[in-house]
Amino acid sequence: METKQQKFERLAEHRMNDTLKKMKLLGNLANKKNYDYTDVHVKAMISTLEKELNILKKTFSMEQEKDKKTFTFKNIE
């Protein structure tokens, strides 16, 4: 039977590889011989990707913070 970690690793590898392939395809759009675009287009694409990456980071960070449910005054100055 597959453990939770094995399931995570299997799904994460598959989804990461799909994402990396899609990012490469986006990069192919930079070829000015085949496509016409402006800096506004590029900035909109990059901005959206950066926002989604930040959401992903926060999601994983929040998962880790869920485990930390203790209170202390030691860190308050």
Describe this entry's structure for a reader:
The chain folds into two domains: 1-34; 37-68. It is built from two helices and no strands. The chain starts with a helix and ends in an 11-residue tail after the last helix. It has 77 residues and is an all-alpha fold. Helix content is 69%, strand content 0%. The longest helix has 28 residues, at 39-66.
Question: For the residues shown, what is the average pLDDT?
Answer: 90
Helix content: 55-70%
Tell me the overall shape.
Answer: flat
Number of helices: 2
Largest sheet: none
Task: Count the E strands.
Answer: 0
Ranges where pLDDT stays below 50 over 5 or more residues in a row are none
Distance between the termini: 49 Å
Order of helices and strands: HH
* Rg over C-alpha atoms, rounded to the nearest angstrom: 19 Å
Strand content: under 5%
In total, how many domains does the architecture comprise? 2
Features:
single chain; 77 residues; mainly alpha; 2 domains; 2 helices; 69% helix
